[in-house]
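ok so i was messing around last nite and threw this chain in just to see what happens. nothing serious, just curious
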Amino acid sequence: MQKITRLLFPIIAIVMGIIAIVSGVHKMATKDLYDSTVTATIVDVQEEWDHTGEDSELVYHAYIDYEVDGVKYEHVESPESDSTMQVGDTIELLYQSKDPSKISGKNITGNSVIMIVIGVVVAIGGIIAEIKAFIRR
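result:
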């Protein structure tokens, strides 16, 4: 059982790393689609406890209203949420002019790079652990 665990965890890390890399690259590739800005108004902020893992943390979900070309989008979950957001505050977001229902935070590139770097680190860690597991056989 221990041999399976030593081989399985690195494989899971490699797969998770690849998923993070692909996700980051996809965001970078589609960032140009978010070609317009809109000012959205926060209409609701909800908080909930996230009990995943050993620690619990308070997670915030902001909901916004915004309008593009006379079409109102109401009570949409914001791509950006934190504890400082209050009902009535406004935030600047990006949206796709071809599909204004698709919104994003303004820092697409930064978030994508972080995702790619995390993916590379996790995948390399998994590869190294897998090589060590094979050498120990």
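not much to say yet. The longest helix spans residues 2-30.
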